[in-house]
Amino acid sequence: MHRLTVESDPNGKVDQSVNSVEVMHSHENSRNLKQTVQRWISSERLCYSIELIPKEDFVLDLSRLQPKPLFCSLPWISDNNLQYRRFVDTPMMKMTAKIVPHCTVMNHLSCYNITEAQVDKFVEMGNWNLFVIRGDTVSESQRFQHSADLVEYLRSKNNPDLCIAVGGYPYVHPESPSLESDVLYLKKKVDLGVEFIVTQTVYDVASFFSYVDACRKAGITVPIVPGIFLPHSYQQLETVLGLTRVNPPREVQELLHSHAHDEPDQFEAFVVKHFVELVRTLRTERPEEVKLVHFFTFNRLDLLKKILNEIMDLF
To answer: Which residues are CB-contacts of 303 (< 8 A; sequence separation ≥ 6)?
Structure first.
């Protein structure tokens, strides 16, 4: 969901040492996302990826998902990470170590209070596939004020194995004065060295395609992947809309609100129907543009599986 923090101890100090214990996976065993990008670009069928919430008690059983996702995205989503002195101890890194032997992992990396030394350490640990964002919280003293600053720094290291993705905002970034301004900033960021874009949550086809058209007109040529959130309750949907500050068109908001008082099974049926139709329409109308969809799952793989079952013919 593009909400990230970075590690430090409660006093703001971070262990910046790098040793063998902190290496999550060797470079040889880390699956490079650049190869995965080429797979979906050249595929004649639809592909998908998923975002999971890093939790130590969550066990990912990829055999439950058919077909399997091309990659898993793992964010930091809570200031609770500030209690950790080392990257290796964070839930995200522990989950990465479990997943990476079986599936490509894209780790989120936030600008919030992160130092150059920490960025270097994070990459040296074998984390080559990065989703770079600014984060919701910005300190005046932090090294990287914007995600573009962090992308530029990463590319200055001339590491050809780094694969970098950034976020896009079909409903316009809440701090941008206009769509045009938002897309212009995105173009500058992409030009620094970005392989693809994953959008914030998408709820309707028209808004996504309007955004894609604006990006293409501005000269952005990298893949733009629609991010799709699957809410398991109306309360969760409201919470996420508030956190992400996404503002869909009025008719879409009215449709979502019309299910505010659904029973759980009714709401789930609506979610499955709505997002199955959304994915189908995205794929049918522009098959050369929409080759990958990215699901924000909140670890509700049961709901994702129901969606996948309904669109199995697209894979």
So the answer is: 230, 232, 268, 271, 272, 297
CA dihedral 40, 225, 221, 161 (to 10 degrees): -60
Q: Round to whole Å and give the CA distance between 228 and 240.
A: 12
Check whether 169 has a pLDDT greater than 50: yes
pLDDT, mean of residues 25-47: 79
In contact, 104 and 72? CB cutoff 8 Å: yes
R_g of the chain computed on alpha carbons = 19
Q: Model's pTM, two decimal places?
A: 0.89
Confidence of residue 93 (pLDDT cuts 50, 70, 90): confident
CA distances from 36 to 100, 167, 256, 308 (A): 13, 18, 34, 20
The total number of residues shown for the chain amounts to 315
The one-letter amino acid at 175: E
| Cβ neighbours for 251, distance < 8 A, ≥ 6 positions apart | none
| Whether pLDDT at 6 is above 60 | no
148: left (phi over 0), alpha (psi -120 to 50) or beta: alpha
Would you call 276 exposed, middle or buried from its count of C-beta atoms within 10 A (0-12, 13-18, 19+)? middle
Q: What is the mean pLDDT of residues 64-80?
A: 82
Whole-number Å distance between alpha carbons of 72 and 48 = 10
